[in-house]
Specification:
Helix content is 29%, strand content 30%. It is built from 14 helices and 25 strands. A hairpin with a 2-residue loop joins strand 20 and strand 21.
Length: 447
């Protein structure tokens, strides 16, 4: 007996096309989401430019509106207006926060401004355990009383007082939450072993333009001198370019032996990644302060990679490097030192003919002559991106499912790839089910 199915979006890619042309990089997802949360600190209307059209951005808008902020998203202008004059709620619901981990950063903003927050424990990509212990310990050090009940973090403070906070690991999220809470604290807060990512610097710049007093962002020690609420003013601000999206298109030109120009990029944000691609055989030239030319005319060579916090090799680009390594000469050794489940792309790449041996957080990738198209499933955002790169260089057709993961971090993905010559198409397919009866037991199989 057949049953009605559900409609799902998929991507079809015919590989083997040499990519050529120009790509314009969108605003950084991992920066703009935190700037949106930071807008909660100021009473008034702030405007953020260079905002990518992503599902994560929509989720964060919903979170802010749930807290009482008024928002307006202008897709044509690529801008968001956030009026946080009146915060009517300090509760960020599980239904929203569980869908995107980055929204957990409203915890620090709410504690900073309202001295109270009830925020659901975060969700997002299933790439491994990402605890919030460092977030909580940092906020407690500032004077916040915190308890966790029924999947929610309940935080309350009579007042926040600056202090020295040492992070056992340079957690990006914890650094951001502590920064946001410290802006309106009394006295000075020093975060030691702080995260140094460009997105941290962008958040500090945003807050400083607003009226905060933050120094040291981009180094391992950040100092936040507390200011008063009336010192903060609404602002207009432009988000930095997305270094991970830029890295993805760099990999795409290299994978297809193409040649292209990538614009609206801050090359300094990708120094370590660029050096590894060059060692593999890519030719990367700086055209101007925000543009590079990427090409590759020869056989790629194997490399060794260990992911590290910034400025080391980005974990978000590890899967893309692995996709390139599958056809490189020799054996590449890739070590994922940050997240235990960040090799989710491995079984999918094997379907395409990749020779990968994984042992815990190490992957040995023996280059093969070529990959072949296959039916693939994206398990998370960055694994999904690596499958797109693999499909672009593979022989034949690939179908990628679960592309909602990819949509979380890549604006107009298929449109941008089409513009540089990729044979890529998004389509909707109905997944149907057949239920058969066997000895009184019902079993269901997907067609």
């Amino acid at each position: 007996m057949s049953t009605g199915g559900t409609l799902t979006e998929k991507i079809r890619i015919i590989g083997g096309k040499q990519l050529k042309g120009e790509v314009l990089i969108s605003g950084a997802k991992n920066a703009v989401l935190k700037l949106m949360a930071a807008a909660l600190l100021v009473k008034g209307e702030s405007k953020i430019y260079n905002v990518p059209e992503l599902t994560d951005v929509i989720i964060m808008l919903n979170v802010l509106e749930q807290l009482g902020a008024k928002t307006k998203y202008d897709k044509k202008e690529k801008s968001i207006t956030i009026d946080a004059s009146n915060i009517t709620s300090v509760r960020a619901s599980y239904e929203l926060v569980s869908r995107m981990r980055a929204s957990f950063v409203v915890l620090g903003a709410l504690v900073g401004r309202c001295k109270e927050a009830i925020v659901a424990l975060p969700g997002g990509c299933a790439i491994g355990e990402r605890k919030v212990d460092f977030h909580i310990k940092g906020l407690e050090a500032l004077g916040t009383n915190i308890k966790i009940e029924n999947g929610y973090v309940h935080a309350k403070a009579r007042k926040l007082t600056g202090t020295d906070i040492y992070l056992d690991i340079p957690s990006v999220g914890a650094t951001e939450n502590i920064m946001l809470a410290s802006v309106l604290a009394e006295g000075s807060t020093r975060i030691q072993n702080a995260a140094q990512e460009p997105e941290i610097v962008d958040l500090a710049n945003f807050l400083n333009v607003m009226g905060a007093d933050i120094t040291g962002a981009g180094t391992s020690e950040i100092i936040i001198n507390g200011v008063k609420q009336e010192d903060l003013k609404p602002i207009e601000y432009t988000t930095i370019p997305d270094r991970i999206e830029a890295g993805t298109y760099m990999a795409a030109f290299i994978a297809t032996k193409g040649k292209g120009v990538i614009r609206n990029i801050f090359p300094g944000h990708l120094t370590f990644y660029t050096s590894k691609l060059t060692k593999m055989g890519a030719d990367i030239k700086l055209l101007d302060p925000t543009s590079i030319e990427v090409s590759c005319r020869r056989k790629l060579e194997a490399i060794n990679i260990i992911t590290q916090p910034y400025p080391g090799f980005p974990t978000d680009l590890q899967s893309l490097a692995m996709a390139l390594a599958t056809v490189a000469e020799g054996v590449s050794i890739i070590t994922e030192s940050l997240y235990e489940n960040r090799f989710m792309q491995v079984p999918e790449l094997r379907k395409m003919g990749a020779d990968i041996h994984q042992e815990r957080n190490h992957a040995l990738v023996k280059g093969v002559k070529n990959l072949t198209g296959a039916n693939l499933k994206a398990s998370d955002l960055r694994a999904g991106a690596s499958l797109v790169i693999a499909a672009l260089m593979a022989e034949g057709q690939s179908i990628i499912e679960n592309i909602y993961h990819i949509d979380r971090g890549y604006e107009l993905l298929e449109n941008k790839f089409k513009m540089i010559g990729a044979d890529i198409q998004r389509f909707i397919e109905e997944d149907t089910a057949i239920i058969t009866q066997d000895k009184g037991n019902l079993s269901e199989s997907q067609l």
